[in-house]
Structure formats: C-alpha cells, structure tokens
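Notebook entry, structure prediction.
Reason for the run: the old model in the group folder had no record of what sequence produced it. Starting over properly, with the input documented here first.
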Amino acid sequence: MFRALYTAASGMNAQQMNLDNVANNLANASTAGFRKRRLQFQDLLYQNMVVPGSNATQSTQVSAGLQIGLGTQSAASEVIQTEGDLTTTGNPLDLTIQGAGFFQVRQPNGGIAYTRSGTFQLDNQGNMVTSNGNPLQPAITIPVNATNISIGQDGTVTVTLPGQTASQQVGQIQLATFANPGGLNSVGQNLFLPTSSSGEPITGAPGGSEGLGTLQQGMIESSNVSVVDEFVQMILTQRAYESNQKVVQAADQMIQGVNQMAR
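New structure, fully documented this time:
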C-alpha cells in the first residue's frame, strides 16, 4: 500500500511536468521559429520478488518471475524538428530557412548562438540584428541610403543605391547545421547553444551540399506548435494525473481500513 502511494506520486509528478511542457508549447504558439518539445518518460527500478530465470527446482526455471514497478520519471524533452508554416510579411529583412540550417548571431559576451527566427532589423549602424540587438554573423551592413534590399536563396545580400541601376553586393549570409540538432541547449530568446551532444556547427552558404537549406526573403517561419494537438495532450495529461490521484486515494482508504482493524 505504501509502495502504491509513492508509485502513484511519481506518476503525478511526471504528469505535472508534462503539463508544464504543454503550457510552454502553447505559450510559444506564436513565437517565430519556435520548436515544440515532447516529454519522454521511463520506468523506475523494479523490486524483484522472484527474479525471471531463477531456479524454481533443480531442473526448472521461473519463466516470468515477479517484479513490482516503482513508478515513472521524466527522461528527456525531445525537440520536434519539423518546420513550421511560412507566413508572408513583405518585410525585406524577414527571412526563413527552408531546410535544417540555423542563423548565426553574436551574443553580448562574444559567443555565437543559433536561431531559426529570421525576424531581423537594422540597428543605428545599418547592421542586421535580431530583435534583441544581437548582430547576424557574418556581419551584414546595409547602407542607410539603400533604396532596395534583395536577399537571394543562396544568402547573397545586394542593395540598390540612389542614382545607380546596377545592384551592389554587401554581404553573404552563412547558415549552420548540426549532426544532432536535438542536442542543442535552449537558452531562451529563440537562441540555441551547441553542446557535446549536438556536435560542432557545420557552416556554409545556403543551398550548398551541407543540407543547410535555402533562404526565402519576406517570409518568416511560424512556430511548429499545433494548438489542437497540444489541447489533446493536455486532456490526456489531466486524465493520467487524475488516474494516479485515484490510486493515492484508494491506497489511503486501504491504510485507513487496516488502522481501523487494529483498534
């Protein structure tokens, strides 16, 4: 009975974390380039009453054994790497990646972070930066008097200046990819950092042989969160939590019954 209490409590804790994950996915349903997460669970240790394969007699073995599970725990939060829907904005600085690549941005501490959010702006020096002011790497500077900005699928950035008919190249956007994107460390602000699990970044121009993908100008990638799917998951999580809660109540009633017998 006491074992049932702790086992059910582990299930309630796991489903609480699952609900936390669903809440985060729903909260970022409108975050450009957001990748939803799916929680993975694993069972805990088993108490072996009879070990499978142990000797029943001198000539026979126990075929199944008797093992009592001790509950569950959260094992990992898998990042789902499917691409979100594309939304046309008409803003020449809005970019989306059709492929597995990431934009590279420089953080205030000098390190490089990676993002799928292509909602870029210009700072007071004409540099392409994120909404938090982190500059795109390699740096791209747009002349203040540019009348037209064109970004090709291969990342080539060209501008047209007043009094000129021919366009002028001002930079080349580079993308990065990883052997295991699911191993990236999410640090907020739409940014990821590499880890030993993700591997080192593989960089190159869009459209190359590295599988980085190509760029589309004037579009952004929406979050890949499906609100309907998350609501379904929320209902399933709630029902699983309630089931574990009923186990706690049943075990408590059994303990009360034993206490009453002892009076």
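Summary: Residues 2-81+225-261 form one domain.
The old model has been moved to the deprecated folder.
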